[in-house]
Write a structure and sequence with these properties.
The complex is a heterotetramer, with two copies of chain A and two copies of chain B. Chain A is an alpha+beta fold. Helix content of chain A is 44%, strand content 13%. In chain A, strands 1-3-2 form a three-stranded mixed beta sheet, covered by helices on one side. In chain A, strand 2 and strand 3 form a beta hairpin. Chain B is of the alpha/beta class. In chain B, helix 3 packs parallel to helix 4. Classes of the chains: A alpha+beta, B alpha/beta. The structure holds pyridoxal-5'-phosphate (2 copies). One pyridoxal-5'-phosphate sits at the interface of chains C and B.
């Protein structure tokens, strides 16, 4: 199996939805999946550049295990964070670093992997990976 | 046959829905004739312009200069300098006129309603030259504070003001702004980026000193725009960029410049773009702009009313003369989420600060959702838009 | 299937004869794929770029940024700033780097071989700032006086030199010019307008600080070009034009700027142009440039020899690395008459000073007839050209 | 008859030539038709702007009769001057001022009447007319 079970389930669920609106609604709902990152801790350092909305995250790695804490004022952006949370939280940093952003395209939430068209997802993903690499 | 049929892009689908393009204040779509004119240019006449005797060069030069003739006659202007767009046109005034005519301590009057393109060039010049910038405030009814404007004119050498706001659609009292500026002895630059798509301005009668606009907002191609200049202001302008075509002669000890518009058009010009823009003028010359303007304003007014009923705040007033731009916010749904949902249904709207942060600051917000209508948009599209907004609000508010 | 078939314009007639286009140093023709890419952009994806979530805006942004990726990977460059062409790229260095880093008394080194676009911006800056300009002489063998160059570097802060002369076709000893400049502590700008059409330069290995070129001379559209910049020089650059898209935030008390290339790309960019240029890169990536370069140089050499035999003076040497440019004059037939006769037979050549008056001054002439060859030109065309020249000389000399 | 005889004859002769090269050769030959304007008298004032070649002219109007004196270093340009000489010299200024540049198009020596494509002819013609208007 290519992906961890939780992520694979999510990919499968998304694969069944065709309508873009429904996909977005689902992503919207997944905004609840983030581990809260309190606004009080938001700073220039935690900010995701290139997003239109305010979007912030930090990654903690304890005993090699990753925890992403995040939040955004736009729910769909936070929903993307929720998806990444499901994909990586509680997993080993070294495993997480194997992850490529392609799965978001398989889910239909990305038209394109290019940063300029990924509507924020790519920037979030890249920042998460960079943080893990730094803190590993 | 509707106007829509002239625009190939308008038959495409987005996310399984027919595209409804409401991002016209950012850029308009291009009719087939404009696309074809450029293809034909590249397929038949492409060459570099000026100073060549071969046939293609003659055709290319004619194509390029034809567009200048279109602009001059369309706007009744004395001088029309090609630029890459409104932004470069304003920077050309800052560099070409400002540096040569403004001294430390001089005053430039801007407004809180300006697009960044009509703020940042002046901030750069001001820092470099110790020039004072004054900002005319925007009132709660989304108009300029004309009393404050009158006061701000003291010692002003230049006024730079937007004709029609790209965020609010508000058309300023341009005639009054111009005549007061001149009375105070100041020159005045009009940012007409959002005006020319709707309004065929007579530049001579208008009587501004400079007017800047872009082709891409009036059915023309990207990469080209123009600065109109009155003769006396033109004579006060120094070269901006140096290079080919703008010189009369070059020696190692110095150069002399062309005396016409070419003086400000260094390098190989935007030839295919000019050819495309001419085609856009030709296409627009068949359109009853005032009638469409009124039709679209009515659509905008109706849309604004509907949005208010759905609990949104609308920024703008939609009075006679205003552009069909509807900026709004919903109290609980984030504008970015809103725009993504709309995109999922095939609507193109813009969110964000629309390059007018000082205005948004003044309004106490950081962005809006902006739906802007143009010639090919219909009342029916507006109704579908409102229907979709109602659906989104119903579901996510 | 020959390369010619990719270029729709090359099947047209001029004055009843098949067009033979030998004005490639002025601008090259465009393959169908480039024309189509732009038409398709306007027909399918046209929108303004950046900061928008709707589908078209995403596609347009991707199209625009894709071209930057093409440039960066084609040239192995750290930073690639879009401009409207070589001329604006050089002016960007003068304004963005020169104003911020040059002091009165500093020295800029140019050469007598420069195009006006690499002279006039520096003359303007020099007058404004009291900067000294030194010109490296051209020797009788059409090369730069490298001894004089070495001497001129004393106290030089910047060297600006043409990679390949648009008049002579001579390719300068760029590697040596660059390493000597750096040894003297000067930065160096390469005008590569005539180089990139023939030579896929590795900018990192090349090691210049700035490199300027235009799309329209390498099968791409008009209205777009680029400036490559090394990271450390990039960090020393101040904004040139102000406006939308180049800012991080704007307030009435001041603005902050983007930190990447966008900082120098104010206003709506040349989107369709970038899309067209990408298609040109893609098309060129299938071409064996070095092989064609050698083939064309041989054609140029042969043409030059023939012209000499017909009594013409040829300016250039056509050695390995030089471009396939043949500048010549006939002792008794005026170059303008010559070019008109050639045009009557379907040949496009350029006459005049080619925007390089100081070089022509040095050569003791006021203009040349210039035939410049590119990928789609053939030996057969050169033979027809010489045949026609022979006819003209026979009749009018 | 629309044009004076000499000009009409010229137009008719040109009308018979189809080949562009032959047309140019004929224009070239007509460079002999100019009334000489000695190089010593060439100045910025007599210069025709927008021509690639050096081209100069002056117009004298004596007793209402026009005389064009001209010269250029390029023969085809001087040939165009020769054509205008044939068209106007010895005629009344008021008649000459009725002349439109269209006849050059009828002759096939112009692709276009627009100044930017007329390869000098239009600039010569316009300067001649301006001089006459001034000196009339
Ligand atoms: C050597 C050289 N430098 C600069 C330029 C100017 O290029 P552009 O006109 O595209 O700005 C040219 C082209 O004419 C050139 O040949
Ligand atoms: C009012 C106003 N001014 C200036 C501009 C800048 O125009 P451009 O980006 O075409 O240079 C725009 C367009 O965004 C505008 O709406």
């Amino acid at each position: 199996m290519k992906y961890p079970q939780a992520l694979q389930d999510l990919i499968d669920e998304f694969a069944e939805i065709e309508d873009k609106m429904e996909i977005l609604e689902y992503v919207y709902d997944l905004s609840d999946e983030v581990v809260e990152f309190p606004i009080a801790k938001w700073s220039e350092k935690t900010r995701i550049m290139g997003c239109q909305s305010e979007a912030h995250l930090e990654v903690v790695v304890v005993d090699g295990i990753v925890e992403l804490r995040s939040g955004a004022d736009a729910k769909i952006v936070q929903g993307m964070m929720g998806i990444i949370t499901i994909a990586i939280n509680g997993r080993k940093a070294e495993d997480v670093l194997q992850l490529k952003p392609d799965f978001a395209q398989e889910m239909g939430i990305l038209n394109s992997l290019s940063p300029s068209r990924s509507n924020g997802f790519r920037n979030i993903f890249d920042k998460v990976m960079a943080e893990i690499r730094m803190k590993q | 046959m509707s106007l829509k049929d002239d625009f190939p892009i308008l038959s495409r689908e987005v996310n399984g829905h027919p595209l409804i393009y409401l991002d016209n204040a950012a850029t308009t779509q291009k009719p087939q004739v404009v696309i074809d004119a450029m293809s034909q240019y590249y397929s038949n006449s492409n060459a570099n312009v000026h100073r060549a005797v071969h046939t293609l060069a003659g055709e290319a030069t004619e194509g390029y200069e034809d567009c200048r003739r279109w602009i001059k006659s369309w706007f009744n202007a004395e001088k029309a300098i090609f630029t890459s767009g409104t932004t470069e046109a304003i920077n050309l005034v800052a560099h070409g006129w400002g540096r040569a005519n403004l001294q430390p301590g001089d005053v430039i009057v801007l407004t809180e309603m300006e697009h960044h393109s009509d703020i940042v060039p002046w901030q750069i010049l001001s820092e470099e030259r110790g020039i004072e910038i004054r900002y005319v405030p925007v009132l709660d009814d989304f108009t300029l504070d004309m009393e404050a404007y009158a006061v701000s004119l003291e010692n002003a050498k230049l006024v730079c003001v937007v004709h029609t706001s790209n965020v609010l659609g508000v058309r300023n009292s341009v005639d009054e702004l111009i005549s007061l500026a001149h009375k105070a002895g100041a020159k005045i630059l009009i940012d007409a980026a959002q005006a020319v798509p709707h309004d065929r301005i007579d530049f001579k009668q208008f009587n501004a000193d400079f007017m800047a606009f872009s082709a891409h907002k009036m059915c023309g191609p990207t990469g080209i725009g123009a600065l109109l200049v009155k003769n006396d202001a033109f004579e006060q302008m120094q070269p901006f960029m140096g290079g080919g075509d703008m010189i009369e002669s070059v020696t190692t000890s110095g150069s002399t410049y062309q005396t016409n518009e070419h003086k400000f058009e260094a390098g190989t010009p935007k030839i295919a773009e000019a050819v495309g823009w001419s085609a856009a003028f030709e296409w627009m010359s068949e359109i009853d702009l005032p009638a469409h303007h009124e039709r679209l304003l009515n659509i905008a007014k109706w849309t604004a009313d509907q949005l208010r009923e759905l609990g949104c705040t609308v920024y703008g007033r939609h009075q006679s003369g205003d552009a069909a731009v509807v900026s709004f916010l919903h109290p609980t749904i984030h504008s970015e989420d809103f725009a993504r949902f709309l995109d999922a249904k095939g609507f193109a709207v813009r969110t964000g600060h629309h390059c007018a942060q000082p205005l948004l600051n003044r309004l106490g917000i950081t962005g809006t959702i902006r739906a802007s209508f143009y010639l090919y948009n219909t009342r029916q599209e507006a109704e579908k838009f409102i229907e979709t907004v109602r659906h989104i609000v119903g579901k996510f508010a």
